[in-house]
Structure formats: structure tokens, C-alpha cells
TrEMBL record:
Domain Coenzyme PQQ synthesis protein F C-terminal lobe as annotated: residue spans: 430-562
Family listed: Belongs to the peptidase M16 family.
Name of protein: Pyrroloquinoline quinone biosynthesis protein PqqF
NCBIfam families membership: PQQ_syn_pqqF
Residue span(s) of domain Peptidase M16 C-terminal: 178-326
Coiled coil: 334-361
Designated gene of the protein: pqqF
Boundaries of every Peptidase M16 N-terminal domain copy: 19-147
Domain Coenzyme PQQ synthesis protein F-like C-terminal lobe per the UniProt entry, residue ranges: 626-708
Length: 771
């Protein structure tokens, strides 16, 4: 059943977009304010971003502990905000019955924020911590350098992040400017509110009117046209090692050009045979490519192609090939290109979450093909780009991952593959997980080869709304596929072929340099490998070749789980998995992590960052989930708001490689690792009080109808690898049976590390108690 959409304009000027999507299990709201960092007074850089932060600190009606963030997180939902150059976005996703409560809190906090000076001082320090992390992050600085390529008169080239010195809170003029910015832009004529969910359009409209009318009446603000992006030829940034950024700027594009650019970027990111990326790959030059938009406003457009090339690559020829591909696209029937694009967009719309749909609707960029206006803008965009007649090009074939019927011969599923029933086939979402235990240390040499072999398929998977991950963790290789069932079937057959026998070019392909991560993200990336606690084995002196890979596959032991496939799709999957490498093995519970363990992880940033993972045995995981649920608010309140340790503070229950436990994370610009750990332990020693409503609230999150399809699939896979009970109703009942005494006992066990601690940090262990 297709979505139904309605557009309304309220009496106060607010534009309301409603989408009834019966397939969805959650509802979402996205509110776009048509004002951002470039609209703030130039004398106070960061004012718009600072205001966005202030909104989340609570109001008289909804204080911090009952505000939007705490409300949504308590329901297991998602909430966030973002300040861009000309827009500010607020968005959340919750179970459908909670949409009204979330919408009331969102609108109320934007209408009546608390501007008390004490709150402003605390939040300015958080903004300053973000600024420090931003200034130390190489990738953020590279992005900032890109924007310096336009005219110095354009606001894109200015500083807008905000810090302790650009936000003079004691100045009456600043306080007046803050309130004027809020009054001018947070009114009906400047707002677009999008609501998405399984509710009827009438029900969504009633909610939208009820809370949208809280905003003052107004009209859209008339802005001066920004200075030209180009007052001279665009300054192309210098290369960063193997990375090259090629910028493209347009000062006067027709309406619809932003959507048209999305179609163009799909063509530029397509690495299938026939296109320019395929030509680079055949020459052995291509390591990675990403083409993306940087800025769009008032007829101006800035975008770039980010390339990572091998040392042997010829930059001149690479650029000529790009221009040749652009020329080829210019000569194509744009309607045909748009038909292909529309099929991709349709699949993305079918797979999108409520939150994704709401965000796209609030930005007036739904998952559809281009209109006639958009097609005209696409042709105008191509006319404004450099082209050459170089190259022998052809459009890639139709994408097999979008097929609506099986493309493989059917067969019985392989012995050992478990079919799980947590995810009903009616969801039109399936997942396949395969995990090989590969003991030989030679796997470390072959990992890169396999990743290179899978890369073209992974590049196709993203636009087709298919998740494809291949990871090496400890002694395991893991393949994960999730998306439309037929896409999973098709991709699984292709992936196994690529893993079984990589093409010759992949055996010697150079490895692309990964963008550096901020410290806390680097620790999160290292966590799964650390949890498995595999011992480092010396690499044998051998040459990685197909014979070595064949031996590894023969010796490998695999376990697998398939979810969301109906009987006919299971038959097709069986055909795709013929010749699955290795021998099946039964899953076994993960071995306990005993004692305190400290793992030092090298990160690119210098700010102290720490993760503390406290694993729990299966019989304590219901209590652990409830404890994590109760701790989430106090951890944020104490460490983020009161102590102001930094902007990256979180706590949650996580399942990682078959281990379930509580995870705490902090990155701080000023607190040391022992201080961070001390603050965490002090908080745990304060205890928690169980409210029956909290227990019910958490238990309700373990209904299949309340969980995203991806979360259900992940739940079942983690239960499978740990050999735990995957029945969601069992977890619900277990949570409802947890009492205060159990929580108190578990809290003390956490403090004592009775079930083990695993601490990841970008520093050495503080003392000898860690081993």
C-alpha cells in the first residue's frame, strides 16, 4: 500500500506536511526552521547553534527530566537537532501513541525556552567543548578548508561554530540579539512541520494543528541575496595525501536544482561497468570516491567529488575522464536517467524509517524521481559543468538489486542455517547473517583482499537501500545483509562468489586511507574486537593467494541466521547459498570476561575518551536492561549538564558479539581518564530508585511491533550468537519481574566488577589493578 500525503498551511503561517504510511511501526516529527548560522548576526558567530542547545534544557512546563530528550529516550526512540547554514532542524521518532507527547514537548520548548543566565553559562561551556573537539579533528578542518575556496565575502568562508569567546553572555546587546533571533525566526511563517506514521491523515492533521498553532503568527523572513560564491575562479583545495577534492560551484541555478543534483550524484557515485569510476578502477587508480553536496541556498549550489587515488594515478587524465563522463550524461535522454533514479528512490522510500521520511518531507525532498521542473534543472546543471568528448562510455545495466522477482534458481537451505521467526515476512524486510570462525592468522592478510573484492557490491547496495557489511573481528569473518528480501537473496549470491574467489585485481589493490575518527568514535569502532579478546598471533611468512584462501574456507566453521523470508524467498535463498564455504557449527555461549581489563586504543585526537563495558550473564540481562534504562537520564544530567565533562556523554545497554552489558562513554576536553572513571563510579554508588512505570515502559519496547525491523534482526542475531533465548515475550516478562532488591544487588556487582569490566581508552591503564 502506497503512502498518502497531505499539505496544509495553518493560520499562523506554519506549513504542515503529513504522511500516512501504513507499513511503519513508529511515528516521527521533523520541524525545520528556515534560519541557520548564516542568518545570525555576524558579530556573534555561533548564536544560532547556541540557541538550538538552549532549547533542550527544559521549560517551566517540561523541566529537563521530563523534556523532549528524556521523554523520547525513555521510550527507546531517537531525538536530535542540527544547525546548518540556512536551516535548523529538530526531529524525533517514537512509538505511534507517544507522538502527541513528543510533539507537545518539541513545540513547547521552541515557543517558550528558558533563557536564564545560569543555563546559558553551562551550555556555552558545552559549545566550547564541541568547538575544541572540532578544531582538533582533522576531517572537520578539511571540511572547513573546502569552504574557504569560495569568495571571502560569502558567509560560507566565515567561522560559525561558536565558542566561549564569540558568545558574550554578559553583554545586554547579545542577550537582546538572542531573543530577537528567536522571535524573528521561531514563528509560523518560518516553520515546516512534517509528521509521519501509521496514523490516518486526519489524526496526524489534528496533532499538527493542535501543537503547530502554539507558535506565533508570522510570515517568511525576506532575506538579502547572499554575495556571489564566485567572484573569481574557484580556488581548488590542495591534495591531502592521496585524497583530492574537486569543487563545483553554481551561482544561479533554477529552482529544483538541489533535487537535480541528487540525480547527478547518483551517476557520479556509480562504479558499475560503463562509467567513469569503472574506468579509474580498471586502470588501478581508484581507492575511494564520494560525491556529495556541501551547500544549497537561494540559487547557489556547492558540491564536490572526493577521490582517493593510488600513487600511479594521473590527475590530468582522471579529471578528463570525469569531464568526459559528464559530457556523456549531457547527451543522454534525461527522462531515461530519471526513470532509473525513480526506481532507486522508490526502493529507498519503501525501506525508509519514519524519521527518514519526516526529515526528507520537511526538507521538501521526498524519495521520488524528478518533476518536469527538476528535469529542466538537471539539464541546466549539466550545461553549467565542464565536459569533453573523451571516453567510451555506456550506461550501466539495470540494477539487479532492485529486481521484483527471484534472479536465482531455488534449492533447499543449507544444513546449519537457522530460520528465525522474530521478524514476520509481512514486513518486507529480511536479514542474513553468516559468521565464519577462521583460526589461522593468515586471515589477517586476506581480510583486505576480501574487503576489496566486496567493495563494488557494497557501493551498489547503499543506493538500493540494502545494508551490506563484512567485518573481521577476532578470529571471525562476518557477513551481514539486510533490506528487501529479494535484494538480500541476490546480494548474498554475489557476495559469496566474490568472497570465494576474488578477482586478480583485488589481490594487490592498495588500501584506501580511512578518515580519522574523533576519539570516542574510534573507541566504539574498536570495541567489538576488544570484547572478543582474541590473542594477537604472529603472521606466518607466506604469500596471500587463492590457494591460501581456499584452505581457509575449507577449514572454516560457520553459523548463520536468516530472518524475514517467506517460503518462496527461502527457496530462492537456498539457491543463492549453494556452495556456502566451510562447515556448519552450533553456536555456543560467549566465555565470561573476568576481572578488570584495560585496552589502550590509539586515536587521532588527543582529548581523553573512555568506554566502560560491563558484561552480564544471561540471567541478569533483563535486570541490566532495566538498570541501564534508569541510569540513562542521571548519567546525562550529572556528567553532561552538572559536571560539564564534555558534549559526548552516553550510557546504554548494548549487545556486542554475543555479550550483553551496560556501556558508558565519555569524551572530555579537560577531565583525565581516572577522573572520568571516578565520576562514573560515584554516580553508580548513588543508586537508583525503581518506578513501576519505568519497568512497564521498558518492557513495552520489546514488542516486535514497537521495534524497528533492523533492531529486531539485530536482537535475534545477538541472541543466536550467544545461544540465548530470542523470544521477545520472554524478555518482556523478565523485565516486569525485576524488583528494587535485584537492581541494588546488580548495581553493587557492577561497582565490584563481579562480572568483569572492559575499559577502552586512548591512554595507558592508570594503575596496577587493571590487567
Amino acid at each position: 500500500m502506497s503512502d498518502a500525503i497531505r499539505h496544509l498551511t495553518l493560520a499562523n503561517g506554519l506549513h504542515l506536511t503529513l504522511r500516512h504510511a501504513p507499513r511503519l511501526k513508529r511515528a516521527a516529527a521533523a520541524l525545520r526552521v528556515h534560519a541557520g548560522s548564516h542568518d545570525a548576526p555576524a558579530r556573534w558567530p555561533g548564536l544560532a547553534h547556541f540557541l538550538e542547545h538552549l532549547f533542550f534544557l527544559g521549560t517551566a512546563r517540561f523541566p529537563l527530566d521530563d523534556g523532549l530528550m528524556r521523554y523520547v529516550q525513555g521510550l527507546g526512540g531517537q531525538v536530535n537537532a542540527s544547525t546548518r547554514e540556512r536551516t535548523t532542524d529538530f526531529f524525533f521518532e517514537v512509538p505511534p501513541p507517544a507522538l502527541a507527547g513528543g510533539l507537545e514537548r518539541l513545540c513547547q520548548m521552541l515557543v517558550e525556552p528558558d533563557f536564564s543566565l545560569e543555563r546559558q553559562r553551562r551550555e556555552r561551556e558545552v559549545i566550547h567543548a564541541e568547538f575544541i573537539a572540532w578544531s582538533r579533528n582533522p576531517e572537520a578542518q578539511r571540511q572547513f578548508t573546502l569552504l574557504q575556496s569560495v569568495s571571502a565575502r560569502h558567509p560560507l568562508s566565515a567561522f560559525h561554530a561558536g565558542n566561549r569567546y564569540s558568545l558574550p553572555l554578559e553583554s545586554p546587546a547579545f542577550q537582546q540579539g538572542l531573543r530577537q533571533f528567536h522571535q524573528c525566526h521561531y514563528q509560523g511563517g518560518q516553520l515546516t512541520l512534517s509528521l509521519v506514521g501509521p496514523q490516518s491523515l486526519d489524526e496526524l492533521a489534528q496533532l499538527g494543528r493542535r501543537y503547530g498553532e502554539l507558535f506565533a503568527q508570522g510570515t517568511g523572513t525576506v532575506r538579502d541575496r547572499p554575495p556571489a560564491l564566485l567572484e573569481a575562479p574557484l580556488r581548488q583545495p590542495t591534495a591531502w595525501g592521496a585524497r583530492h577534492d574537486w569543487l563545483f560551484a553554481h551561482d544561479s541555478v533554477p529552482q529544483g536544482a538541489e533535487q537535480a543534483l541528487e540525480l547527478l550524484l547518483v551517476q557520479l557515485n556509480d562504479s558499475r561497468p560503463g562509467g567513469w569510476l569503472d574506468a579509474l578502477r580498471k586502470r588501478g587508480w581508484l581507492q575511494d570516491c564520494k560525491a556529495q553536496q556541501l551547500h544549497a541556498h537561494a540559487g547557489q549550489l556547492l558540491w564536490h567529488v572526493q577521490l582517493q587515488l593510488s600513487d600511479e594515478a594521473c590527475l590530468t587524465e582522471t579529471r578528463e575522464l570525469l569531464h568526459g563522463w559528464l559530457g556523456f550524461l549531457r547527451r543522454q535522454d534525461s527522462k531515461r536517467l530519471n526513470e532509473r533514479f525513480a526506481r532507486l528512490q522508490q526502493r529507498r522510500a519503501q525501506a525508509a524509517s519514519a524519521l527518514e521520511l519526516a526529515q526528507r518531507d520537511s526538507a521538501d525532498r521526498p524519495f521520488t524521481g524528478l518533476t518536469a521542473q527538476g528535469l529542466a534543472a538537471f539539464e541546466a546543471l549539466l550545461d553549467d559543468l565542464p565536459t569533453t568528448p573523451i571516453g567510451d562510455w555506456q550506461l550501466p545495466p539495470e540494477e539487479a538489486l532492485l529486481a521484483t522477482a527471484p534472479t536465482t534458481n531455488g534449492a533447499s537451505l543449507p544444513d546449519g542455517l537457522v530460520i528465525d521467526g522474530c521478524l514476520p515476512p509481512s514486513r518486507q524486510f529480511a536479514a542474513l547473517d553468516l559468521r565464519w570462525h577462521v583460526r589461522s592468522p593468515v586471515r589477517q592478510r586476506l581480510r583486505t583482499v576480501l574487503e576489496h573484492s566486496l567493495r563494488p557490491l557494497r557501493e551498489r547496495a547503499g543506493p538500493a537501500a540494502l545494508q551490506l557489511d563484512f567485518e573481521a573481528r577476532g578470529e571471525y569473518w562476518q557477513l551481514h545483509l539486510a533490506g528487501h528480501p529479494l535484494a538480500v537473496v541476490t546480494a548474498s549470491q554475489e557476495a559469496l562468489t566474490l568472497l570465494r574467489a576474488p578477482a586478480e585485481a583485488h589481490w594487490h589493490a592498495p588500501t584506501a586511507a580511512e578518515a580519522p575518527l574523533i576519539p570516542i568514535r574510534a573507541l566504539l569502532k574498536a570495541l567489538p574486537d576488544a570484547v572478543l579478546m582474541g590473542e594477537t598471533q604472529p603472521l606466518p611468512a607466506c604469500i596471500a593467494d587463492q590457494a591460501q584462501l581456499d584452505r581457509l574456507w575449507q577449514q572454516a566453521r560457520w553459523q548463520g541466521l536468516a530472518q524475514g523470508f517467506d517460503s518462496s524467498q527461502q527457496w530462492a535463498l537456498g539457491g543463492a547459498l549453494q556452495g556456502l564455504m566451510g562447515q556448519p557449527v552450533e553456536p555456543s555461549p560467549a566465555r565470561p570476561i573476568q576481572g578488570r581489563h584495560w585496552r589502550q586504543i590509539t586515536t587521532s585526537g588527543s582529548e581523553p575518551a573512555l568506554l566502560l563495558f560491563c558484561p552480564l550473564p544471561a540471567d541478569l540481562q533483563a535486570a541490566g536492561r532495566l538498570l541501564a534504562h534508569l541510569l540513562q537520564g542521571p548519567v546525562y544530567q550529572r556528567l553532561r549538564v552538572e559536571l560539564q565533562l564534555g558534549y559526548a556523554v552516553f550510557s546504554a545497554f548494548r549487545q556486542i558479539e554475543g555479550y550483553g552489558g551496560l556501556l558508558f562513554g565519555v569524551q572530555s576536553p579537560h577531565a583525565s581518564h581516572p577522573q572520568i572513571l571516578g565520576h562514573l563510579l560515584d554516580l553508580l554508588r548513588q543508586g537508583v530508585a525503581l518506578a513501576p512505570a519505568s519497568r512497564t515502559q521498558l518492557a513495552d519496547q520489546f514488542e516486535e511491533t514497537a521495534m524497528s525491523n533492523a533492531d529486531v534482526a539485530q536482537w535475534a542475531w545477538q541472541a543466536h550468537t550467544a545461544a540465548h533465548n530470542a523470544d521477545l515475550s520472554f524478555m518482556r516478562r523478565s523485565i516486569l519481574n525485576v524488583g528494587q532488591v535485584q537492581l541494588d544487588e546488580l548495581l553493587q556487582q557492577l561497582i565490584d566488577a563481579s562480572h568483569g569490566w572492559l575499559c577502552l581508552a586512548n591512554a595507558a591503564a592508570p594503575n596496577s589493578e587493571w590487567r
